[in-house]
Amino acid sequence: MVIGDNPLTRREVVQVARFDAPVALSDAALARIDAARDVIDALAADERPHYGISTGFGALANTAIAPGDRTRLQQSLIRSHAASSGEAVEREVVRGLMLLRLQTLATGRTGVRRATAERYAGMLNAGITPVVGEYGSLGCSGDLAPLSHVALAAMGEGVVELGGEVMDASTALERAGLAPVVLAEKEGLALVNGTDGMLAMLCLALADLDKLLDAADLAAAMSVEGLLGTDAPFAPELMALRPHPGQAASAANIAALLEGSPIVASHKGPEDTRVQDAYSLRCAPQVHGTARDTAAHAARVAEIELASAIDNPVVLPDGRVVSNGNFHGAPIAAVLDFLAIAIADVASMSERRSDRFLDPARSFGLPPFLADDPGVDSGLMIAQYTQAGIVSELKRLAAPASVDSIPSSAMQEDHVSMGWGAARKLRRAIDGLGRVLAIEIMTAARGIELRDDAPGPRTGRVVEHLRRSVPGIGPDRFLARDIEASVAFVVGGRALVAADLLGSADAWAPAAAAAR
Question: What are the GO MF terms of this UniProt record (predicted)?
Answer without folding.
Answer: histidine ammonia-lyase activity
